[in-house]
Design a protein that fits this description.
Helix content is 36%, strand content 14%. It is of the alpha/beta class and 973 residues long. It has a 20-stranded parallel β-sheet. Strands 4-5-6-3-7 form a five-stranded parallel β-sheet. Helix 1 packs across helix 2, helix 5 crosses helix 6 and helix 12 crosses helix 13.
Length: 973
């Protein structure tokens, strides 16, 4: 028992000691609570200081970043801060002394946790000693995604995007310019380039910069430095030092530099420190000006065109949603889309605005009517677009602003003759009328180029004409309404029967009422500030009141052409500042009832197709530009000698459309009088014989001294099936020579051929080839039309030729030559046809060979090929003539048109050619053509295949995948 009792006593003592020890330890924690708290704060402070030092180290150089180990440690520090913060909160709430048992216990636990946490913080501080350092070089992301809009359903934008991608893949192309009107979608294309996965794989870095309205080198450098996350020491670094830093960063890297909204030339050497791009690097710039793309040495230019109506409608529908599910609202919405002129920015803003109208047809109709009048009222959604478009307008000088606003006098999308427009600009004073007309036209072409480069005006398919987009025209009308000196009354093509009311025209400086149905005019038009009055093509206008022009002393341009007037009233004598008078096609006009001598400043007069006699205008000795026709010489008693009065003429055009025998009677005297003029710079004339032309050239004093004299000579009046071919190129038509119904080669004509840019040979006999005229005499020729010359069997015979042939020729049209068998016979001298862009072959029933041996290699610039009604053609590119043809043959060919070729079986024998530029192919009535020379890898730019669905269905394919790829491009007739 004693042993048991002893054991129990010992155990009790031990247990008691443990209890005492436990409470002693807990009490120590309570006593040390404040000390443990301060120790924890101290350890945490040391930890945070180390963390701050480390962060400062990698923040000091933006090229550097924390190591992965260091990043993990910093995250652990952050978590530790949270844990300590929670303990601190408990200390502040529970750490105050109290004799309550619960308080004593919690304080003890808190102190113990703080002591342990101090050890953990210290351990973490020790872990913050990184033997291998805390930073590594930062890896800049190859591309920063922008979030590009979807353009797959917008054909014009997608086409420009694809063209840019293809150019970026070509080694020799380093700079690409994308240009077009404001709001047309250039930025969307650039954003898609930036985000494109293929581009990300192709380049090490893609750099996007939005160039400001007034770019500075410093701003551009700052944007690039931010993109590359570079550290440039010191805020006072010079632009040269920053450029050097950028250059060093990009050295050896393959970069794509995207410059959006470029408003003026940027010197990339100053900005980025290199005179030439790094190897395999490229630049794509987007600008509203084609000229800026040229200034920045773009290798290729891509114009972004307005959306087609279908694409515009699809975009409008997607933005508006189901609000247009109602048929009546859909009809209004279609009209709204048409008003937007294919401009994506305007479509988007208008659609978002009208979407608010829900399915309220009244509000939709009101929106349409307001949109149609936005040139005169404020419309929600339009003002933002207008301010955007104004940027281009405000960049123009005052002269160009005037020329742009003047162009709004003509109907929207209407073709405006360039020569006529420039005459009006000159008459208005936009060009200095003291200079020669030829110089003024040169100045006018410079202005026109800037306006077209900015897409404020557009070239049409007829290259001597321009037009204005309907949205830009409304902008011009809006801008003109805000100017006191450019008040316009513009109502063309509105079906007007009556002249507008007085309040509409009394303040106008320019009035356009062309293409209406006016039958009468006011007795007088009290417009003392009126400068231009356009009434042309009012076909029912027969009389003009006697006092109509009484107050128009300031009038400078009057156009009455194609009206039914029979005379001009006496009040026109008051228009003493009139400089341009257009009366052409006024078939009933026989006399003037005014004193024509009063028009002392008249410079440009067009009386073609009128019955006005030369006797009526003989006193107008100051006229510089005269356009007339055979009828003005007098139908019954031809007038001779009167034309000699116009010795101030600089430009003369005599139109001869009929009565050849009558013209032959007076041509000699007219020719002699014209040849004596010393100021003549431009002549359009018909000579009945080549000898007559030679006599004129030999006797004209200006022909020899004025090497820049422009001419359009013909020796007959043919009924050609291509009558306008020589006049369809504005830069050529003033140096043209057309020979009709001639025979053989007249040596006297060859001198004129040597200075001819556009040559027409029609129904000519006695020659078997064009080269009979001497290839050395055709070095300047840019356009050539050969028609009806049935003795020709080839165009050029290369035998014995030791020089380039037709080295400048750009357009060749061969039509209706019954015995033609080939275009080229014999060897092809290198450099021949090197600039040929357009080749048209039509109605040549014996032609079998288009590209003879060696010819196709000389056609690097050929862009358009059309072959029509040539019944013997079996192959476009003959295998027998083109063995070993390289895959990159015809590298520039864009369009291929094949019509009514019953024997055609092949374009090329297989799919080995690349067709790198081909965009469009049209096939009609070529029933034996069963294969196309395409596969899944070539013809990557092909966008359209036009033809009959039955023809497409009979084509044979090597691979069904090829058919599926191409079928999406089909447009079936």
């Amino acid at each position: 028992m004693e042993a048991v009792a002893g054991a129990l006593a010992v155990k009790a003592y031990d247990d008691g000691s443990k209890v005492v020890g436990f409470f002693q330890k807990k009490n120590d924690y309570v006593k040390d609570l404040e000390e443990n708290y301060h120790k924890l704060k101290s350890e945490l402070g040391k930890l945070q200081a180390r963390r701050d030092d480390i962060e400062a180290e990698f923040n000091r150089d933006k090229r550097m970043q924390a190591t992965r180990e260091c990043q993990d440690w910093i995250l652990r520090v952050k978590e530790m801060e949270i844990q300590v913060s929670k303990l601190e909160e408990k200390y502040n709430s529970k750490g105050k002394p109290s004799w309550k048992p619960t308080s004593w216990t919690s304080r003890s636990k808190l102190s113990e946790r703080m002591a342990k946490k101090s050890e953990e913080v210290h351990s973490l501080w020790m872990d913050g000693i990184f033997e291998r350092g805390v930073v590594v070089a930062k890896s800049v992301r190859p591309v920063e995604k922008i979030g590009a809009p979807n353009i797959e359903d917008k054909q014009s934008l997608q086409g420009a995007f694809r063209n840019t991608l293809n150019y970026l893949k070509r080694d020799k192309i380093t700079r690409i310019g994308i240009w077009g009107a404001l709001g047309i979608g250039k930025t969307a294309i650039m954003q898609n380039l930036n985000d494109n996965e293929e581009m990300a794989k192709m380049f090490d870095k893609i750099i996007w910069v939005t160039v400001s309205k007034h770019p500075s080198i410093e701003k551009l450098q700052e944007a690039i430095i931010r993109r590359l996350e570079l550290s440039v020491e010191g805020t006072s670094s010079t632009t040269e030092e920053k450029a050097q830093r950028i250059s060093e960063e990009l050295e050896g890297k393959k970069c794509l530099i995207l410059l959006d909204e470029v408003c003026q030339k940027i010197d990339l050497h100053e900005v980025m420190g290199f005179r030439t791009l790094q190897k395999d690097s490229k630049v794509v710039l987007a600008s509203r000006s084609r000229g800026i793309c040229y200034d920045m040495d773009a290798d290729e230019l891509i114009k972004v065109k307005n959306l087609s109506y279908d694409d515009a409608w699809n975009m409008f529908q997607k933005t508006v949603g189901d609000a247009i599910s109602s048929p009546s609202i859909k009809r209004i919405a279609e009209l709204v889309t048409n008003e937007c002129g294919g401009l994506p920015l305007l479509i988007d803003r208008v659609a978002r605005t009208l979407k608010k109208n829900g399915k309220n047809e009244v509000l939709w109709d009101r929106g349409l009517r307001r949109l149609q009048r936005w040139d005169s009222i404020k419309v929600e959604g339009i003002e933002e677009v207008l301010e955007f478009l104004k940027l281009c307008y405000h960049d123009l000088d005052e002269i160009k602003k005037g020329c742009f606003l003047y162009s709004a006098l003509y109907p929207e999308e209407c073709e405006i003759c360039v020569d006529y427009l420039m005459e009006c600009w000159r008459a208005e004073g936009f060009m200095d009328y003291r200079y020669e007309i030829k110089d003024a036209r040169g100045e006018g072409h410079e202005i026109l180029k800037e306006l077209t480069d900015l897409s404020l005006l557009e070239r049409t398919n007829r290259i001597k004409f321009v037009k204005m987009n309907k949205v830009l025209r409304k902008m011009a009308l809006k801008m003109s309404s805000q100017r006191n000196d450019f008040k316009l009354l513009v109502k063309p093509q509105e079906g007007l029967n009556d002249f507008p009311k007085r309040e509409e025209w009394e303040q106008a400086t320019r009035i356009s009422l062309m293409d209406n149905q006016l039958q009468t005019l006011p007795d007088t038009l009290d417009c003392c500030n009126l400068l231009t009055l356009l009434l042309q093509r009012n076909m029912f206008l027969m009389t003009i009141p006697e006092s109509f022009f009484a107050s128009m002393q300031s009038l400078r341009v009057l156009d009455l052409h194609a009206t039914a007037i029979e005379s001009l009233p006496s009040s026109l004598s008051n228009s003493i500042h009139l400089r341009g008078l257009y009366l052409n096609s006024c078939n009933h006009l026989r006399k003037f009832q005014f004193n024509i001598e009063a028009l002392v400043k008249l410079e440009a007069l067009d009386i073609r197709g009128t019955q006005i006699s030369l006797l009526e205008i003989g006193s107008l000795r100051q006229v510089r530009c005269l356009q007339m026709s055979l009828s003005n010489f007098g139908m019954e008693n031809p007038i001779e000698g009167e034309i000699s009065n116009f010795n101030s003429l600089e430009e003369l055009s005599i139109e001869v459309r009929s009565s050849k025998l009558w013209w032959d009677k007076i041509v000699d005297s007219v020719k002699k009088e014209v040849a004596a003029w010393e100021k003549l710079t431009s002549l359009r004339f018909c000579f009945p014989e080549v000898d007559c032309l030679e006599l004129f050239v030999s006797t004209s004093p200006v022909w020899n001294k004025n090497s820049c004299m422009t001419f359009q000579f013909a020796n007959d009046h043919p009924d050609s099936t291509c009558p306008q071919i020589l006049e369809s190129f504005c830069y050529l038509s003033n140096y043209s020579l057309k020979l009709v119904d001639g025979n053989g080669v007249n040596p006297r004509m060859l001198k004129q051929l040597m200075v001819t840019y556009a040559f027409g040979l029609i129904n000519h006999r006695g020659v078997s080839r064009l080269s009979d005229f001497g290839v050395e005499n055709m070095n300047r020729m840019l356009v050539c039309l050969i028609e009806g010359c049935n003795e020709m069997e080839t165009i050029i015979n290369g035998e014995g030729i030791t020089q380039e042939v037709l080295k400048c020729l750009e357009h060749l049209c061969i039509n209706n030559i019954l015995n033609l068998k080939s275009i080229w016979q014999g060897p092809v001298y290198a450099g021949s046809l090197a600039q040929l862009k357009n080749l048209t072959l039509s109605r040549c029933p014996e032609l079998k060979k288009i590209f003879s041996n060696g010819m196709i290699q000389q056609l690097p610039q050929l862009q358009h090929l059309r072959v029509e009604e040539c019944g013997q053609i079996e192959e476009i590119i003959m295998e027998s003539e083109n063995n070993g043809l390289e895959a990159n043959a015809l590298p520039s060919l864009k369009t291929l048109v094949l019509l009514n070729l019953p024997e055609l079986t092949s374009i090329w024998i297989d799919d080995s050619l690349e067709w790198p530029s081909l965009q469009r192919i049209k096939v009609s009535t070529c029933d034996k053509l069963k294969r196309l020379p395409f596969n899944n890898a070539n013809a990557t730019k092909l966008r359209f295949i036009e033809g009959h669905e039955s023809w497409w269905g009979e084509l044979v394919w090597e691979d069904e995948a090829i058919k599926q790829r191409l079928q999406s491009l089909c447009i079936f007739n």
